[in-house]
Amino acid sequence: MLYDIVIVGAGPCGLSAAIAAQRVGRTTLVIDKFGYGGNIVNARTVENYPGIESVSGVEFAKKLFAQATGFGAGYKSAEVTGISLDRYEKVVETNRGEFRGRSVIISSGSTNKHLNIGEDAFLGRGVSYSATYDGGSFKRKTVAVIGGGDTATTDAEFLADICDKVYVIVRRDHFKTDSVSAKHLETLKNVEIRFSTEITEIRGTSMVKGITVKNNQTDETEDIDVEGVFVAIGQVPENRPFMSVAPVDVQGYFTAGEDCESGTPGVFVAGDCRAKRVRQLATAMSDGATAALQASTYLSRLEERA
Description:
The structure is a single chain. The chain is α/β, with parallel strands linked by helices. It has six helices and 17 strands. It has two domains: about 180 residues, FAD/NAD(P)-binding domain (3-Layer(bba) Sandwich); about 120 residues, 3-Layer(bba) Sandwich (FAD/NAD(P)-binding domain).
């Protein structure tokens, strides 16, 4: 079958694209190797999406998937290994065969860098990779932010507004950014910055109860009681299979603008795989809808020429 749009990635962005495309009469197929939902399924609660006061990440993903398939979107669980380009067809290659579309939306997302100290055992139980997703669950509590870059300083600044105490654990002896957020943190009374320090253990049983840190200059260790740990040491875009399809920046993110046009005819990129400053649920879903409507416009132009 030749689809109007093949969508790579079934996170909120990809499912949003499928909903928008189906509603304007385009046939779509969504492909994802991990199942639908993307990183949102790891969120204990979603409270930052307009119109929804609170819902679990899993429940939110289920509703999105039901809405997309209810409008007629197809879905395939498969690992995409590459995309072959043709003027009129795009061949999406997977470990379960090839799928053809007249256009493609890549919404492959990104993955968080890990500490590799067993933090995933506490995911959703005190450990989070996103302050904007999960920060609201830690109001009036003590938390730690791990990292020294833009994401970490922005997260810490955000959390300082709602938490009683925020520890910022920075492995180096300085921040990796000179952003306004980094400078502002040093003025906040409820923020304690630990430079030249790294986390060695997350303590707790069913929930996070604290962390153990080591001073890299003295080798001294210390236990700090916290109820939340926000890992903010960076992300990596899941764009490796598509590096030859559309331009990327030095970090591997697609360089498309807000119109989600990749620069390659018939190929659109959306969500966290795209170079952008703000990565939230609302912006990912906005990207998905934008990419779908841009793809539909592209197809309309092809149809006018036929």
